[in-house]
Amino acid sequence: MSLPIVAVVGRPNVGKSTFVNRIAHADDAIVHEMRGVTRDRSYHNADWRGVHFTLIDTGGIEMGDDDAFQSSIRDQAFMAADEADVILFMVDGKTGITADDEEVARVLRKVDTPVFLLVNKMDNPSKMEENWEFYSLGLGDPRSISSTHGHGTGDLLDEVVAILRELPEREDEPAEEGINVAIIGRPNAGKSSLTNRLIGRDRSIVSDVAGTTRDAIDTRVEHDGKVYTIVDTAGLRRKSQIDEDVEYYSYVRAMRAIDRADVAILVMDATLGLTDQDQRVAGYANERGCALIILLNKRDVVESGDVLDGLREDVGDRMTFVNYAPVISISALTGKGVLRIWDAIDEVYANYSQTVSTSKLNNWLEGIRQFGHTVNKGKRTLKLKYMTQTHNQPPQFTIFCNHPDLVTDNYERFLENRLRKEFDFTGTPINLKFKRRD
Ligand code: GDP
Ligand code: GDP
């Protein structure tokens, strides 16, 4: 049985990590090492009065420009609502309510998951009651605590574990096996229909109403003697949630599936064309370094081949950052083109996992030097010396050179394009690192 989950959310500096460090077992900082996710959230083992649970610290979100920051606060709250059994929403009793607090509260007021409002930094035990202003967040009684001194935390945990004790036992998610494939895309693009095709049976009831299928589910499948875990993100909101956020929520779900995927399959509805959300999730897959395949679905209802060609062009023009991804047109309804997806998965996964020998890489680098295109600044000229592959899944190459600071984005793109011409990296992002070597 997997452990119940308690998530701590709130803006930076309210004291989340201090709280988590007080409660969690000191010796195991991160129990889950999910690729790419650890930067934003850490998972800890904890127990109280004999109840074991996983504590998620959503601490280290990075301050970006205001918009990015707002949306990451929102993401945090949504993700917590999706995966946690209890949410601890922490605010700062010294600073009072901020606009960011209100933003998080707005999301949390609408979810079914139990939420505790923690007013932290109430260090003076005799003034613990003075937290009235926080009632206005609309999340019930504010609970004063001091994470540094510990006041109020015991009573709070008593209440939290009382809820955890009442939870129905949950089934363990099946262990991931083989290649992890995430099916992502907008509501109604055809993700469930495609998943049913790939797993060879109807596992969900497909409906014409956007967002009526169930939660994301992992299914283990075998095809041609190989094992895959297909993660269908079609399903939406576990409990209550909010109609106007259906689209947004499918995006959050896609991000979470991408975080643990080897291969992401972006399903687009060819009758609608390319949408902003398609661009965003493709960008996220690229950033998180997973392999990508783009599907143009519903080709059976597209009147002519010209439409598909136009859409391919559009994808080429507006999603240049994933121009390595194969684009395949299919019909999940009739099954046309679906078999080709298996080959595509195997191909991009092989490219994503490959290791290129150092001698081949340095032969290639010699070619680049002879070609003579380099970067100059003042009296300095960039000289590439040698290179080696330092990671795979996805491939990462380290190039040793005299002045790493001279490398421009343009020059890096030039190198990436040349590498892609020489070696087969279809479907996978690649990373280049530059290190100084005199
Ligand atoms: P996070 O960004 O939300 O994880 O916040 P941190 O746990 O890193 O805490 C931010 C700052 O608040 C640190 O300087 C902590 O020492 C301080 N802090 C955390 N909890 C308390 C508390 O209960 N009382 C006081 N006075 N300071 C606290
Ligand atoms: P999801 O929300 O992305 O999982 O999309 P569904 O698989 O539930 O499909 C949404 C609607 O599109 C349903 O009515 C499907 O029958 C329909 N649909 C899915 N794939 C195709 C296709 O290839 N062709 C046509 N004509 N309809 C499709």
TrEMBL record:
InterPro entries: G_ENGA, GTP-bd, GTPase_Der, KH_dom-like, KH_dom-like_a/b, P-loop_NTPase, Small_GTP-bd
Coiled-coil region list: none
Keyword GTP-binding: yes
EngA-type G domain mapped to chain residues: 4-168, 179-353
Residues reported to bind GTP 1: 10-17, 57-61, 120-123
Family named by the database record: Belongs to the TRAFAC class TrmE-Era-EngA-EngB-Septin-like GTPase superfamily. EngA (Der) GTPase family.
Subunit organization: Associates with the 50S ribosomal subunit.
Protein name: GTPase Der
Source organism (scientific name): Slackia heliotrinireducens (strain ATCC 29202 / DSM 20476 / NCTC 11029 / RHS 1) (Peptococcus heliotrinreducens)
